[in-house]
């Protein structure tokens, strides 16, 4: 997967500007990799990479603020 990670990320990044119905699915990404780049891996490895990549990109931090004594109630 290493040689293809940049390509997949590029496609997913360009999909953000597209309507939801026109974005790449994992199956479409797998098919394009096979057709255009001679990818020999499995579809499940592409799905796993996409899922892990999407989950690691989002990091949210919400600061907790409270007045004095408010949390002691």
Please outline what is shown here:
By secondary structure, the protein is an all-alpha fold. Helices cover 52% and strands 0% of the residues. The protein has a domain at 2-15 and 25-56.
Structure, described:
This protein is 52% helix and 0% strand. The termini are far apart. It is an all-alpha fold.
Please specify the SSE layout and strand pairing:
Blueprint: H1 5-15, H2 26-37, H3 43-57
Helix pairs in contact: 2-3
Comma- or semicolon-separated keywords:
73 residues; mainly alpha; 0% strand; elongated
Quaternary structure state of the chains depicted: single chain
Run of helices and strands: HHH
Helix share, percent:
40-55%
Strand content bin? under 5%
Largest sheet: none
Unreliable sequence segments: none
Q: Give the distance, in angstroms, between the N- and C-terminal Cα atoms.
A: 52 Å
């Amino acid at each position: 997967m290493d040689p293809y990670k940049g390509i997949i990320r590029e496609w997913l990044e360009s999909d953000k500007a597209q309507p939801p119905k026109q974005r790449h699915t994992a199956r479409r990404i797998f098919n394009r990799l096979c057709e255009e780049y001679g990818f020999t891996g499995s579809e499940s490895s592409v799905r796993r990479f996409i899922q892990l990549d999407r989950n690691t990109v989002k990091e949210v931090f919400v600061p907790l603020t409270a007045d004095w004594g408010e949390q002691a109630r």
